[in-house]
Each structure stands twice: as C-alpha cells, then as structure tokens.
C-alpha cells in the first residue's frame, strides 16, 4: 500500500487504508484466478476448449449473482460480514473447481465454476459499495484510490498467476489466488455497520459531531438528554435511552431487486453510465480475444501477448494517479463517454501493424479504461440511494463482467478467420458505447469538475 499512500496520502485516523489493503489483496487474487483457471484447465483437462469453458462459466454467471448479492448487501445491518462470507465461499469454490479437474465429470466441474462465479461481483462492486461508510467526507479521494486498486490488481494478478504456474505448476497458482481472496475476509468482516433510522445499528460520519435529539437538554441530576414536549412538565420527559422508536422492517429481497433495477433504469445519468461502461467492456473483451493472435503474428509468440495486457494495466494505473492529482474539468458523466472514445482508438491503432504501434495501442486502451472506471464509480456514488448502493454496484459489476465475456466469445471465432475484422469490430463497438447520452446537466448538485460541493 506504500505506493498508494505516495500518490494520495490517507489519514491515519480513518479506516480507508485498511479498506484499500483488503480490496487490493482480494482483487489481485481475483485477477490471478482467471488466468490460473485457464492454465490449470489446460494442464489437467488437456483441452483449450475445456479451459475456456471454465473461465466462461465463472464470468457469465456473475450477471445473475451480482443483483442478488447486492440486494442482500443492501438489506444487511452488517454488510461487511456478508461480504466476508462471500469471499470465503468464492475462494472455496475455486478450490473445489481445481479438485474436480480430472477427477469428476467435466460437466460437474463447470457447474461448480458457474456457482462460484455467482459470488464474483463481491470482489468488485461489493467492496466499492461500502466505501462511503468508510471514507465519510473524503469520498472523492478515496474513490480515486479504490479505482487504482483495480489497475494494480490487473497488473499484478496475471503476472502472479503466470509466474507461479511456471515455477510451481498451474494448480498452485489457483490455490494462491484462492488464498489471497480468502485472506481479505477479516478486513471485510470489520467494515462499518449500516446506518438505520429508528435506533438500530448505526454508523456515524467519522468527522461529524454526535447527533442530539431535538429540544434535548441535560437534566440537572444526571446530565441525560431528554426530549421535551411543549406543555408537558419536565418530570414527564421521555428518556431517550429508554424509549427508542421502533425499527422499520427491511423490504423483501424481491422488492429490493425491483427497486434496484428501477433505480438504474429510472435514473438517466446512472442508466447512461451503465450502458456506456457495459458496451465498452464488450469492446474490451473483443480486443482481449485478439491478444494471442496479435502476439503470435506481431511479437513472435502467442504467450508474449500477455505483455500487451500489462501495458494497458500500467497506463490505466498511471492515468488514474495523474487524474487523482490533477482532476480534469469534466463531469464524471462526460469522462465515462470520453473513456469509451479513447478506447475506440486502440484497436484501430493495432490495425496498423508493427510492434511499436501494437504496444502504443494497448497503452492508449489503458489511458481510456482507467479514468473511465474512476468516473463510473463517481457517478454511482453520486446517483445511488444509500439503501440500494450495494445492489447498484454489484449489478453494474455483473453486467460489465458479462459484457466482457460475451465480447471475447464473439470475437474469438471472428479473429481466427480475420484478425483485422475482429479489431475493426472492437473499434465499432467502443464507438457505439461513446455515442449518445445527450447534453450534460449538473442540476444534481455536482460541479462540472465532478466534485460535490462542500
């Protein structure tokens, strides 16, 4: 975490540093789990098709798991404990997939991977949805740091999986990924409780003064706050400690799911940012599917294509660090669309051929991807109701994961027939993501720079 503190110092008296450490470890484990599963599936099952089926099973099922997991997080008085359980179960699922390879029918192993993938959004949106209760009034800076953990994990995860598989074997890489994910569970367990009206579990903004009841005054005898009613003698005042208002009954999971869906679709800004990010992820999946062929034809080896993904991760991380230090004069909504437009240039640049142009293409992709993710989180935090924030974040993560998987699945066969056609399709898809959106408004209380006043 030292490099994060260098970029943006975090105050010691809050829990942001601990939150970021847990999120980083969990996300590194998640980023290493995909490549590790691919390598383990190929090594133990002996088929590239079966290996890709495992990865697809883990990814595609996130579309269903995200909204449900988010609904439960929004209803939980202690969402951190539910998140910790999801992390442990996800790590256990990865271990079961590894144990089943070569020992159980492959269909059973794929089914295990699908069930495991239901919990995948916990590592992305599930974590980020808890950030406002941790950061308090320092949310913009903490949000930038949170986004940087994605870039750092995208850089370290695949390299960790590949290096471990090369040195100790692919099964060890899967075990290491599961261990990293499970090791973040204690941090999730200790996240702040949810604030509830009516005297239930509460969490207070870290720098806010203690709340006091209206017209409350300390008694001369005990100094205990009492609620005074006009016309009632002080002796009949109600002791705040002994007469808490009743707790409201939380809504059902189904009602929460419906409310969350309406919150996304019914909010033009949130729906627009979600659509742009998901379609952009489809383009990212299409470009990623071209990486092995690009590495083979341009860099001299399919395995060298992984270097291209590292280039994108590095540039995304650097772009977010610079953006955190020097914010652009753009609203988060506009930056989401601008990120899609920048990423559209990457496949087009890769079409020109040559190693230098290819590396530059993936550097450009990262320059668009990193700030887009930061802006997307800012839009979600700004537009999400508190009681639906968890579901909105996990639903968004689910849709993005699914979009990426669908893009990769569609571009793979196309790239095998015509690599330029697949790259052109990726460019067209990213341009489609950037199109539309209408005129930007700031009547929600957000300044053009994306900062919340005060």
Characteristic terms for this protein:
mainly alpha, 2% strand, globular, three-stranded antiparallel sheet, Growth Hormone, Chain: A, disordered N terminus, single chain, disordered C terminus, 454 residues
Characterization of this structure:
The protein is mainly alpha-helical. It has 2 domains: 1-193, Up-down Bundle (Growth Hormone, Chain: A), CATH 1.20.1250; 253-437, MFS general substrate transporter like domains (Growth Hormone, Chain: A, Up-down Bundle). The chain contains 19 helices and 3 strands. It has helices at residues 2-7, 16-45, 48-60, 62-75, 79-100, 106-117, 125-128, 131-135, 139-168, 170-183, 185-189, 253-266, 268-289, 291-298, 305-325, 332-350, 355-383, 389-417, 419-434; strands at 216-218, 225-227, 238-239. Helix 9 runs antiparallel to helix 10 (170-183) and helix 13 runs parallel beside helix 18. The longest helix is centred in the N-terminal third of the chain and has 30 residues, at 16-45. The protein is globular, with a radius of gyration of 24 Å. Mean pLDDT is 76; it is low at 1-13, 197-248 and 438-454.
């Amino acid at each position: 975490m030292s490099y994060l503190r260098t970029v943006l110092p975090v105050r010691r008296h809050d829990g942001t540093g601990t939150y970021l450490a847990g999120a980083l470890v969990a996300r590194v484990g998640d980023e290493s789990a995909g490549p590790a599963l691919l390598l383990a599936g190929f090594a133990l099952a002996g088929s590239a098709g079966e290996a890709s089926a495992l990865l697809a099973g883990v990814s595609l099922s996130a579309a269903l798991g995200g909204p449900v997991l988010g609904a439960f997080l929004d209803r939980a008085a202690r969402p951190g404990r539910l998140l910790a359980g999801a992390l442990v179960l996800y790590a256990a699922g990865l271990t079961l997939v590894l144990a089943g390879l070569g020992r159980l029918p492959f269909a059973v192993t794929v089914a295990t991977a699908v069930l495991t993938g239901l919990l995948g959004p916990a590592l992305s949106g599930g974590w980020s949805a808890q950030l406002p209760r941790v950061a308090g009034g320092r949310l913009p800076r903490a949000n930038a740091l949170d986004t940087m953990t994605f870039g750092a994990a995208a850089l370290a995860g695949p390299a960790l999986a590949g290096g471990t598989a090369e040195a100790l074997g692919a099964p060890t890489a899967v075990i290491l990924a599961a261990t990293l994910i499970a090791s973040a569970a204690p941090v999730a367990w200790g996240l702040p409780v949810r604030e509830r009206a009516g005297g239930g579990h509460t969490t207070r903004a870290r720098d806010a003064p203690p709340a006091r009841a209206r017209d409350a005054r300390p008694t001369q005898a005990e100094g205990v706050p009492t609620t005074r009613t006009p016309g009632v003698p002080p002796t009949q005042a109600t002791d705040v400690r002994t007469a808490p208002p009743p707790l409201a009954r939380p809504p059902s999971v189904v009602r929460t799911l419906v409310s969350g869906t309406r919150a996304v679709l019914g909010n033009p800004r949130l729906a627009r940012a979600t659509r742009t990010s998901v379609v952009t992820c489809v383009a990212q999946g299409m470009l990623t599917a071209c990486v092995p062929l690009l590495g083979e034809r341009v860099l001299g080896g399919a395995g060298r294509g992984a270097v291209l993904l590292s280039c994108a991760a590095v540039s995304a991380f650097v772009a977010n660090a610079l953006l955190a230090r020097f914010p652009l004069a753009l609203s988060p909504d506009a930056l989401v669309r601008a990120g899609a437009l920048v990423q559209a240039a990457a496949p087009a640049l890769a079409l020109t051929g040559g190693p230098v142009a290819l590396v530059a293409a993936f550097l450009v992709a990262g320059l668009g991807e990193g700030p887009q993710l930061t802006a997307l989180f800012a839009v979600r935090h700004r537009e999400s109701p508190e009681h639906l924030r968890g579901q909105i974040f996990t639903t968004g993560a689910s849709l993005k994961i699914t979009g990426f998987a669908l893009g990769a699945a569609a571009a793979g066969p196309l790239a095998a027939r015509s690599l330029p056609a697949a790259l052109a399709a990726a460019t067209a898809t990213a341009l489609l993501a950037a199109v539309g959106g209408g005129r930007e408004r700031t009547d929600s209380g957000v300044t053009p720079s994306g900062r919340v006043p005060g």
